Amino acid sequence: MTDESLKHDLARDFYSVWHPCTPRRDQETTPPLLIDRGEGVYLIDREGRRYMDVISSWWVNLFGHNHPRLNAALTRQLEKVAHVMFAGITHRPAIDLAEKLLSLAPPNLSRVYFSDNGSTSVEVALKMSLQYWRQTGRAEKNGFFHLTGGYHGETLGALSVCGLEMFRAPFEGVLMENRAVRGPDCYSCPFGLSPESCQAECFGPMERALEEEGGRTAGVIVEPLVQGAAGMKMYPPVYLKKLQEAAAHAEVHTIYDEVAVGFGRTGSLFVAGTHGLQPTFLCLSKGITSGYLPLGATLAGESIFEAFDGDFAARKFFIHSHSYAANPLATAVACETLALLTENDFLARLQPKIDAIGGYRPLFEQFKWCGEFRQTGMIAAVELVRDRTTREPFDRARRAGYAVYQEGLKRGLFMRPLGDVVYFLPPLVISPGEIKTMMETARTCIAEALGQ
Ligand SMILES: Cc1ncc(COP(=O)(O)O)c(C=O)c1O
Known about the structure:
The chain is 35% helix and 15% strand. By secondary structure, the chain is α/β, with parallel strands linked by helices. The chain has a seven-stranded mixed β-sheet with strand order 4-12-11-10-7-5-6, sandwiched between helices. Strands 1-2-3-15 form a four-stranded mixed β-sheet. Helix 5 runs parallel beside helix 12. It folds into two domains: 138 residues, Aspartate Aminotransferase, domain 1 (Alpha-Beta Complex), CATH 3.90.1150; 208 residues, Aspartate Aminotransferase, domain 2 (3-Layer(aba) Sandwich). It starts with a helix and ends with a helix. Bound molecules: pyridoxal-5'-phosphate. The site of pyridoxal-5'-phosphate (PLP) has 14 residues, from helix 6. The site of pyridoxal-5'-phosphate has 14 residues, from helix 6.
């Protein structure tokens, strides 16, 4: 490919495409990578330059790009039918996937409702929860609790349970009124505890909220263990255990948004099901197709499903649909993704990789700009700060994280930090050698961007 052709296509992109979460001015100085193909954990641009996909292309890719078995599953389905609507029609891949998901999810979940992305999987849970309470004579339960720092997608419903000011601010005033409850903040624990000594002393605000307003609240939504968009903020499972008990006592649904952490990212398939955690709803997407096609799934239990039973005139059924819900190609590739995840002890064999990533903690912690190195399973993050003793953040205008991103591009890493949090969320198939390259190169990038 000639240089001219590349420039021409980037110019065409610049004048016709509107990219997500990208200030136009950034695009002028740092044009998007023009990716031609993918190979394992690498993305390859039109000039043959290779970039390690450190963040799994927005946290979706589990098995690397261009995976032969996922390609084959897709092709097999493509030769049969690419798309059908999902009301009045069903198909084998959707049935297989629903059964498989249920066999892997906690036993209280018995139904799968398909949609087509992460935000819609959340919208479905919120609407099901609201409609459930209305149909069971508790219409006063019409709001949600969400955690400060929580993120659940960009559609207006999902945004109304988002605890991040940056995403909400342009739409304040029109979002559904829900209550943000101060959640865990292990980075600056107000009780001075470490994750090892913690008994979720920070659960107090949620406990009080449930006691005071549980009667008027439909559900509480959380990102279990890792608040992704907040900057990969992590907290221990004891918080979720307390939440489970208190929410059950207050008769409030628990909604686990595992869109980001599901499918092995934390080291187990789902957080739900570990530590005896049994949410009322489980929202899934992203890794479900290992980054091949959009798909969402919301899992619920039989008591929820039963509340939607009634004849047509009663209009009790769930009136919500997406044209591409349960798309046959997406569900077929999701079945193959689950096969790969569950065979040959795949998840157990992640442990050495998790340890290898954790082994780089000292390399990052020895530098003055490292406020914290944190890790949950295959997710790790480095909080960049101006002064690590005081944890004073960098001035926002400094754009420390963005400077690291630009260094990464020069050195073959595609990182995209979240503000000043550089994080690692690679495809699960990353090899030990690739982990070494990822961590050592990232460290060099940070040192180059911010100084030793
Ligand atoms: C926890 C969580 N929920 C929901 C979403 C929304 O998913 P989607 O971008 O597919 O709409 C995201 C996306 O990053 C997420 O991290």
